[in-house]
């Protein structure tokens, strides 16, 4: 092992510089500045090169982290990029938005021994951003073109990762998406201060340059049916995500001024991309000057809170029924939200929305955290007589998402679903109950993470390749 490694003994953990909160409150630019090259080399050299790399085990795509850290520490960034992109189609995206504290970095042995984890996510971003800057990232060029084609429904990370993998094998790949831009939640869900939109669009341009054909503004169920896709292509992948917002069912839920998180975030992202959004312009989906309350404690809630700050809200509060330690959102994001001026009202739940026509406040109750349930999380129960009202004129619900009724939307009654409404797949092959129809990403897992969607997209692409080849072999033998 080069003597350059194990430098954690003399070098402390350091993230790339964060822009001051007063500055970042005013724009939607990413909050971290790029790593300077010498700092990045130093941080990579902190790696202990463990015999059993727990970081890699807890990375959903199984990134070979110790090896690319060693290559980066010894200045071999081109090889580090080749290695990191071998397991991950969008390493610079994961480097930016994976909840590393729960995945790779949370399991780094240096973190466990209180030395501070290697900044794996920031290094992954640095390696791949350098690769883009140096022109090392190239469109796919298959060794040979194959006659078969695959139709992919959904241009989110699952669909795009599968598209790239299948093009590498030489298949004709057609991606259908109901939106006017590719990227799924990467483009219309996750705000620009976490993931600059150009990072996503340069990826979709690269895929198009590599021969992937995009059919945008094309909704399966409206502009074409699953049956037609199955006739047109040799295999179909469904990667449509989950979009049915869980509703808030309290008295007053019919008042105006109550909006689901994704409507709010899509409007904000569209405005950032230069689109005209009437519901933003007339103020319905614009937090400027308003008292904003966001209900929920996940990453979506954090994104709404921090968007409202940037839109110039008068106040931004988060109502969450558990405490900080028990919230599903990344702790790093909670810290960023606090720095930017968000107020968290922990262990509090909404009981009713108040107002006459338009919401004016959220009547809330304090919660007691009892014993843990089977999932290990403490169960919240209301504390009698602890009511209080939070003034609000825009209330955003971020309570999670359920799958839409895919069989009904696709006119495919024989497409089997689980009891949660997600698509049922064979865990080995990712194939649904319909032969030649595969599924990947949130529509299989329920609301999850980008890195899991990439992993599933890659697995589905490998299974589709096997399925098509097996069909060829069978036909040749007949
Ligand atoms: C606000 C928000 C913030 C998030 N932040 C993070 C984060 O920081 N880190 C992280 O790892 N994860 C985050 N996630 C989760 C992550 O975005 C998802 O897990 C991931 O995008 C799922 O990928 P997917 O490809 O399965 O689906 P999606 O990204 O949802 O893409 C599905 C695509 O299918 C299209 N589609 C749906 N139905 C049809 C149809 N009938 N016809 C044609 N096209 C259709 C949609 O338009 C969409 O483009 C966040 C999610 C949200 C909502
Ligand atoms: S993909 Fe995510 S979990 Fe894996 S190394 Fe990168 S940041 Fe960590």
UniProtKB/TrEMBL annotation:
Its cofactor is [4Fe-4S] cluster. The keyword Iron applies. Residues 150-457 form the FAD/NAD(P)-binding domain. Residues 24-135 form the Dihydroprymidine dehydrogenase domain. It comes from the Bacteria. Keywords: 4Fe-4S, Iron, Iron-sulfur, Metal-binding, NADP, Oxidoreductase. GO terms for molecular function: 4 iron, 4 sulfur cluster binding; metal ion binding; oxidoreductase activity. This is Dihydropyrimidine dehydrogenase. It comes from Telmatospirillum siberiense.
